[in-house]
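INFO  loader      accepted 1 record
INFO  loader      residues=385
INFO  predictor   begin
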Amino acid sequence: MVNRRLLRTKAFQSLYAFRQAERADYQLAFDQIADSFLPNLDLMIPKEQQMQKLDALRKLAEQRFEELFNLKSTNDDIPAEAKNAARYALESYKSYVKKDKATITDNMVAEVESVYDAYLKMLQLLLEITEIAVWDEQRRLVETDHRTSRLARNQVLMALKNLPMFTTGIIRSNAKWAEDDQNMLRKLFLEAILPDTTFQSYLRITKHTFEEDLALVQYLVKTFVLKHHIIADYFEEKDLNWNENKDVLKSLCVKTFKIEKVEDLVLQPLALNWDDDKHFFVDLFNNVLDNDESYEKLITDQTKNWEGDRLAMTDMLILKLGLAEMIHFTSIPVKVSINEYIELAKNYSTPKSGQFINGLLDVLSQKLQKEGIIRKSGRGLIDNK
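INFO  predictor   done
INFO  writer      dumping tokens
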């Protein structure tokens, strides 16, 4: 299942993507200014003669833009063309950033929810294997011990196929395997599953108990659906965040078939309470952006011997996430938050970042608790009013 640790990672990745988008938008603003002062080739004046004045106007517009961007006092004694170009560029920049924020927010939620679609597709893979098993037997001209169609009578797989929620989910998410994937799936079956000794032993038995059917499905899931390189390569190609998502998929698939009787078969939820987790996830992301300047000041005030702009961007984002969580999520203990962001730093920042994040968040948490800015309340927590 999706847990808060994964969601913190996704929030960090989304913030990083947003900062990269901001940088691109900033450069686009300068490109827009440059486009405003291109020579007019329809004039009888040579391009070279136009450029001297246009370059001067462009530089004034760029200077004006930077002053407006940094909220500094502006020099009004410049030509109107430069003023207007700078103002339009700033308006465009703000519009681009607003759109990027909305897009990234939508995408980060959709990306987490797409994990569930991949889960359904993995389950559908079992049914695809069943159909290929029937096809394999039908294509044989000479009868052999490979009675692969017996897989189609597996009680657990039949129950999965007839599970209403599963059928609806496959249709909703369009998680069916495409026609183009069939050769890959047949290769998996013929070269890996069919020769497998456990699968061969299963095929030799005419009628199976529920326990035998369940054991085979669990074996297929663990050995082929979750581990075989053909399937891993397929999902890795489709999912840029496969390394984080694969553990969630493993958990969902394994738990699906931890049952004692066929009637127990149900789909696993994406999370125990996805509505609450989604709120935490989106709120954490937005909170960092909404309080960016105040968090940066808190951090730079504690790192006067280490200039803020020299901090790795990843460290700065992790520190801001830590502050957002400690200040605005009152039911999460401070130690839990600090430990989570230490782990995030170990995985996504520099080798020394874990220790740095630990020390700085610890100092900031003590300072902010004394000032009453961090106030924890709830079960097992002290309400420091």
